[in-house]
Amino acid sequence: VDIHIPALPTLESTDRILCKFGDFVSEGAVVIEDGKLQVTCALPDPVGIPPTTQQQDYVSVPVKVIVNDKIEVTSGEYHFYNCAATVRKNQNTPCIACVTSKWRCQWNAQDHSCSDESDAAGGEFIVKTQQVC
């Protein structure tokens, strides 16, 4: 994932960047995209992400970017979403709940499931984001 840090300090080649998502720690890398400095971080494996609660379709995990194990250059929350959980918000109209979620989910009318939108999945049974159910 790319994290834009407007006030990223000047870094030396010997500086070490760490990305922390909750308890998960990975090495970060500085990249230039569209003329802006960004830090690229690995995300934790799905099994390391806390589950969504019954009332939500996402879980917030604290995120920090740290330089040389001591300088915190930014922090915030990262939202890990679960398209399958969007239908819990409105079980009477699961297709609408799925395709109108802010997570870009798609509805499979054949097996009645909500999943991440994918260009690979298609056909008459797939309802894409913002399409009519």
UniProtKB/TrEMBL annotation:
<dbReference type="InterPro" id="IPR013783">
    <property type="entry name" value="Ig-like_fold"/>
</dbReference>
<dbReference type="GO" id="GO:0030334">
    <property type="term" value="P:regulation of cell migration"/>
</dbReference>
<feature type="domain" description="Plexin TIG">
    <location>
        <begin position="1"/>
        <end position="81"/>
    </location>
</feature>
<dbReference type="GO" id="GO:0002116">
    <property type="term" value="C:semaphorin receptor complex"/>
</dbReference>
<dbReference type="GO" id="GO:0007162">
    <property type="term" value="P:negative regulation of cell adhesion"/>
</dbReference>
<dbReference type="GO" id="GO:0017154">
    <property type="term" value="F:semaphorin receptor activity"/>
</dbReference>
<dbReference type="Pfam" id="PF24479">
    <property type="entry name" value="PSI_PlexinA-B"/>
</dbReference>
<dbReference type="InterPro" id="IPR031148">
    <property type="entry name" value="Plexin"/>
</dbReference>
<dbReference type="GO" id="GO:0050772">
    <property type="term" value="P:positive regulation of axonogenesis"/>
</dbReference>
<dbReference type="GO" id="GO:0005886">
    <property type="term" value="C:plasma membrane"/>
</dbReference>
<dbReference type="Pfam" id="PF17960">
    <property type="entry name" value="TIG_plexin"/>
</dbReference>
<protein>
    <submittedName>
        <fullName>Plexin-B2-like</fullName>
    </submittedName>
</protein>
<dbReference type="GO" id="GO:0008360">
    <property type="term" value="P:regulation of cell shape"/>
</dbReference>
<dbReference type="InterPro" id="IPR041019">
    <property type="entry name" value="TIG1_plexin"/>
</dbReference>
